[in-house]
Amino acid sequence: MGVFKLRVVNLLLFSSLLLTASCKSSYYQAAVNNKQMIAIDSTIAEDSSIKNYIEPFKVKLDQEMNRVIGTAAAPMIHNRNLPETLLSNFFVDALLQIGRQIDPEVSFSMATKDGIRSSIKQGDVTVRTIFELMPFENYICILELKGSDVMTLAHFIAKTNGQPIGNSSIIIKDKKLVDFKIDGKAIDPNKTYKLATYDFVANGGDLVEGLSNPVHAFTSPERVREALISYVESLTKAGKKVESALDGRVKISE
User: Fold this and answer.
1) Where does the record locate the signal sequence feature (predicted)?
2) Distance between CA 98 and CA 105 in Å, rounded?
């Protein structure tokens, strides 16, 4: 019997079993009534056969993960409680440049404080550093937004007491929007603006508002961390360090 015919027969048999089962009332009873936590710690003996099996893969992986791609001029600490940090500014400024390589008309960038997962230590920046910073399978996304939707996004940023933004500035008071500008200019409701972000945010992740009805959307096949690695490598090639600055782009007014 050919492979295709065998698969068809198996599918028919499986479908018949499902149909038969669906016509009956089923009752399930727990096979095990007792349960306990099993700690995985130093008391568990190492399985040498498993260790020997994975060791060649680990060595190869570590070689790539520990590869130095740049140098951080100063530590950039991850802190979700601050409206603006060196790390968040570095991340969205990098995102802005990456976005403009895809579409030169990108005017601003945005991420979320919860989307940035780790700090960058002073000194060597490795591939592992970037994986820890952005461990998710997120892809670069360019959204063209109406001015009104940009303002909805700005109100969300204010409501959450600030989020990482690039080539833009915001003033917030009591978690309400006071002012929002892109490239130093007020938002024109009759214009459209191109935003560089990533697909998780573009699809409403972290409850971001204002991005659900873009005029146009493009998702790059490149993951964010891959783009960040290339970005850091380009800085190194140009003789530059991984660095950032606090420029007051996110202001909390008293």
Assistant:
1) 1-21
2) 12
Q: What is the CATH number of the domain that holds 191?
A: 3.90.780.10
Is 120 contained in some domain?
yes
Cα 250 from Cα 241, distance rounded (Å): 24
The single residue listed with the structure tokens 């198996």 is 10
pTM of structure = 0.80
185 in any annotated domain: yes
pLDDT per residue as tens digits for the range 206-218: 999 999 999 999 9
- Residues making up the chain, counted from first to last: 254
- Domains identified in the chain, total number: 1
Could you tell me which of 81, 65, 147, 136 has the C-alpha nearest to residue 108?
A: 147
Segment 153-157 long-range contacts (CB within 8 Å, at least 24 positions apart): 153/110, 153/195, 153/208, 153/209, 153/210, 153/211, 154/180, 154/187, 154/210, 155/209, 155/210, 156/207, 156/208, 156/209, 156/210, 157/110
44-62 residue pLDDT tens:
888 888 888 998 898 899 9
Residue 10, in any domain of the structure? no
Domain that holds residue 134: 67-247
Task: Note the maximum CA span of the chain.
Answer: 78
- Tell me, yes or no, whether 99 lies in a domain: yes
CB atoms within 10 A of CB 148: 13
What DSSP letter does each residue of 87-110 carry, written as one string? Answer: HHHHHHHHHHHHHHHH-TTEEEEE
Six-digit token string for 24: 């009956």
